[in-house]
Amino acid sequence: MTPVLAFLGCGSMNGSILRGVLASGVPVDRVRATVRSAESARPLEEQTGVRPYVTGEDPEANRRAAREADVVLLGVKPVGVLELAREIAPALRPGTVVASVAAGISIAALERALPEGQPVVRTMPNTPSSVRRGVVSVTPGSATTPEQTAAVRRVLEAVGTVVEVPEEHVDAVTGVSGSGPAYVFLLAEALQQAGERMGLPADVARVLARETVSGAGELLRPEDADPAALRRAVTSPKGTTDRAIRTFQENGFEDLVAAAAQASADRSAELTRELSGD
Ligand SMILES: NC(=O)C1=CN([C@@H]2O[C@H](COP(=O)(O)OP(=O)(O)OC[C@H]3O[C@@H](n4cnc5c(N)ncnc54)[C@H](OP(=O)(O)O)[C@@H]3O)[C@@H](O)[C@H]2O)C=CC1
Ligand SMILES: O=C(O)[C@@H]1CCC=N1
């Protein structure tokens, strides 16, 4: 029997997982969702067929969804996660697994906010989950059995690739893949702007940038795809790409990417100090 999944807070991230889960064939009646406002509930219902419980209209919404669930995914902004965990604590069954997608909320903080022994899984997903092309880390809590971790893994494997990491690596995962889609979209934006600066009409520049980034992403899809080999296949000696790649490298491209990923990871660690109290 498919477990009942409750997406508490269903915005960009949990909404992406919800869409991917539905696209994988999980029936709508095995899914619960909550949002704060009717304005957010409407488009979610129109797009997914799931009618969210609205906390602004029903103070019991989160507890109701949690009570009905086998796996709960906490998907509100980091600052609200522990409060949400405390809110649903009385409604949880002892075996209900509580997964968090939040940056900066440690397993220890989550466990402190929940009934003793409640199984917890910390995850760090990303938004391509909506098209079942996400990549997500999972880290089980101290009271979580391998079967309970596997239950969360099965949910997430429906929306992408799952890696299990120790908690000390979650900041780095956030810096690479949690925030990572935004770096790729920034590259697409910058390529479009470059095209426009060279005189291309905006609509042409947009389609060239979008198809280049998504097409290159497709080439990276096979498990054995090697980005360096794919790059070399575009780069003729002394040709145009060679000149462009040199321009990137002379201007510190690799260092810039490393600094950006590190900045995201550092912010994740900072959030943990601010919000998790450990
Ligand atoms: N966005 C991303 O790419 C990623 C985000 N994350 C994590 O995901 C979490 C959510 O971020 P994101 O999806 O971007 O944020 P959003 O603002 O897009 O979504 C937050 C959702 O929570 C709802 N909400 C707010 N308060 C409550 C409440 N008390 N009870 C129930 N629902 C509530 C909001 O409803 P309403 O719209 O009505 O206010 C909204 O649906 C964060 O913790 C973040 O760290 C992790 C990896 C990637
Ligand atoms: O920007 C953020 O804080 C969240 C976490 C990872 C991606 N988005």
TrEMBL record:
Query: Which Gene Ontology CC terms are recorded?
Result: cytoplasm
Single GO BP term: L-proline biosynthetic process
Residues annotated as domain Pyrroline-5-carboxylate reductase catalytic N-terminal: 5-104
Q: What class of enzyme is it?
A: oxidoreductase
Instruction: Give UniProt keywords alphabetically.
Output: Amino-acid biosynthesis, Cytoplasm, NADP, Oxidoreductase, Proline biosynthesis
What is a GO molecular function of this protein?
pyrroline-5-carboxylate reductase activity
Q: Which InterPro entries match?
A: 6-PGluconate_DH-like_C_sf (IPR008927), NAD(P)-bd_dom_sf (IPR036291), P5C_Rdtase_cat_N (IPR028939), P5CR-like_CS (IPR053790), P5CR_dimer (IPR029036), Pyrroline-COOH_reductase (IPR000304)
Q: In which pathway does it act?
A: Amino-acid biosynthesis; L-proline biosynthesis; L-proline from L-glutamate 5-semialdehyde: step 1/1
**Which reaction does this chain catalyze?**
L-proline + NADP(+) = (S)-1-pyrroline-5-carboxylate + NADPH + 2 H(+); L-proline + NAD(+) = (S)-1-pyrroline-5-carboxylate + NADH + 2 H(+)
Question: Which compartments does it reside in?
Answer: Cytoplasm
Q: Which residues form the Pyrroline-5-carboxylate reductase dimerisation domain?
A: 167-271
Q: Show the Pfam families listed in the entry.
A: F420_oxidored, P5CR_dimer
Membrane-crossing segments per the record? none
* Top-level taxon in the UniProt lineage: Bacteria
- Entry-linked SUPFAM superfamilies: 6-phosphogluconate dehydrogenase C-terminal domain-like, NAD(P)-binding Rossmann-fold domains
EC numbers for this chain: 1.5.1.2
- The UniProt record lists the keyword Acyltransferase: no
**Chain sites annotated for binding NADPH:** N62
Job of this protein: Catalyzes the reduction of 1-pyrroline-5-carboxylate (PCA) to L-proline.
Family membership, please give it: Belongs to the pyrroline-5-carboxylate reductase family.
What name does UniProt use for this protein? Pyrroline-5-carboxylate reductase
Whose protein is this, by species?
A: Kocuria dechangensis
